[in-house]
Each structure stands twice: as structure tokens, then as C-alpha cells.
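From the shared-data thread, chain only:
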Amino acid sequence: MAYCNCGEPSQPDRCCMPAPPPVPCCMPAPPPVPCCLQGPAGVTGPVGATGPTGATGADGAVGATGPTGATGPTGATGADGAVGATGPTDATGADGAVGATGPTGATGADGAVGATGPTGATGADGAVGATGPTGATGADGAVGATGPTGATGADGAVGATGPTGATGADGAVGATGPTGATGPTGATGAAGVVTPAAAVAEASSVDNIVEQFNLLLRNMREAGLLES
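Structure, as C-alpha cells:
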């Protein structure tokens, strides 16, 4: 059975193992034996007689400082003490008397205005310089060559067509002759084939109205829609 530390705080990693001298009491515990095993408490023996006081041994080496223990939990905060009653307010003292206003001092006299200095004399005008001589007139330059004749301008617009003369009066209508007897109705002939005339562009201005109208008449004659 191994006992932890043998009462030696300086050797926390060694165990006490009974061994005859000169084997030291505290030696490393071989694995898997744990270093610290709490053995069973033995029976308390009778108190022996007090022996003579032995000589004081030399002071042992100071052991290493052990690790700091964990900080214990913070205790509960005590209840706040009762607020004491507010003492009575002392009476307000009387205002002190206002001191008398001192007299206003006399206003000092204005200082004298200084004299205006004299105006300086105007300087004389400078002399006008002499006029230089007029230079000689240069000779006339040679006459340049005649430029080319400009292009002929475009023909002016054709004047508007004059108004059409008044239409003569219609002649007197002749007397209506007697109506002849109605003849028998002839057989219906075959439907004629109408040949359309060639298209003519519409007139675009007053200048080409007559030209386009004559072209339309010519096309109708050629198509047989108008007698020549």
C-alpha cells in the first residue's frame, strides 16, 4: 500500500513506501500504482509517555508555493440600508441691504482738432514732342488679271397662266321634233373590252397643270377612250 507524500509537501509526486534503510522513504511510485492512495485509518493506539525533548533540528528548506485555490463564489449582496429621513430646511435669511450707488464721474473735455496741412503745388505739364515728317506715297500696284466669267444663273420661274376668257352665251334651243316610233330592241352585243389609259402623274404646281392635263388627254385617245 502506498501513502501519499509521506507528509512531505516538497515532494507531492512521490509516495511513501515502507523500506529498510538506506532506501529512502519517498520514491516515485511505479506505474500503474497511483501516487496518492488514501489508506484506511488505523486504530488509535494508546498515548505513550512523553519522551525527552530532542534537540532542535535545522530548519528545512522552504517548500514550493502551492497553486492558488479557485476563487470561491461571490456572496449575496446585502440589502440596502434604509434611507434616513431628510432633516428640516433652515429658514432663509433676510436679504442684505443694497448699497448706495456711487456718483457718476465727470465727462472729460474733447481734445483739440489738429490743423489741416497745406495742399501741394500742381506740377507743370511736360512739353509736346515735335510731329514727325509724313512718309512718301507708294507707287500704284499693277492691275490684276481679269477673273473668269461666272456661271449663268438659273432661268427664272415661268409666270402664272393668265385667266381664261369668258364663255360665250348659249344659243337658242331649237324646237323639239316629234318622237319617232320605238323600234324593236336589238340583240345585246358582246361586252366591250375597255383598255385603260396609261397613268399620268398628278400636277405638282401651277406651272405643270396644263402639261399634265394634255398628257392625260393623249393617253385616253391612245387607249380608245376618247375620240381624236
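The beta strands are 3-4, 15-16, 26-27.
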